[in-house]
Known about the structure:
Residues 25-143 form the Pili assembly chaperone N-terminal domain. The protein is mainly β.
Amino acid sequence: xxxxxxxxxxxxxxLTANSxxxxxxxxxxxxxxxxxxxxxxxxxxxVNDYPVILQTWVxxxxxxxDHAEIPFxxxxxxxxxxxxxxxxxxxxxxxxxLPKDRESVYWLNLYExxxxxxxxxxxxxxxxxxxxxxxxxYRPKSLKKFELSDIAKQLNFSVQVEQDHWKLICDxxxxxxxxxxxxxxxxxxxxxxxxxxxxxxxxxxxxxQYQFNGTLPKADQxxxxxxxxxxxxxxxxxxxxxxxxxP
Length: 247
């Protein structure tokens, strides 16, 4: 799940992103459309003590509703949710032709605006809007059923160093998105991690690079630990021995 904070600030008062949490919570962290499915429902909860205006849309990760050619629509696109209220959101596939040889991914946006009357006086105040993003996967019928361990086995990793910057090269030859978290590289008793990113996915039939936050002694082999997220949002841990790649 990807979380973005959008601040509408007056001249006085500051908020940091660390002090912010989403007020709209979804029952799932991702939605899966198998080919032939036209609609999915998602239960939403407003955990705020105040009502919010909720705008929903699907995009390719831009975080803006101003994008056409998207194969999914949300119903209702705009609604008002009562404090501590529940609402069912429908996500509908419009039948647009999508690739048959791999998964496609889009992002569901839940943009909440506090529906709180603003003071009449000119006092400084802060109004905060939040956009929470969830992944939508479209999976063609032509793709075989798989175990997450099969995806992990097929991912090819190597370590490369350029000007003392360590990075992990991931080749994903599969037709599936590999949603990775907790990537760690170790040698003997030393360990480094990849820098945090909002989207850690390795896309189908493509290569992805991850930057490490430190260095290790150069060696022929390293131990790589990582987790993959399944269709239900659960994490599964994997381990591989990988080689050092000369630039």
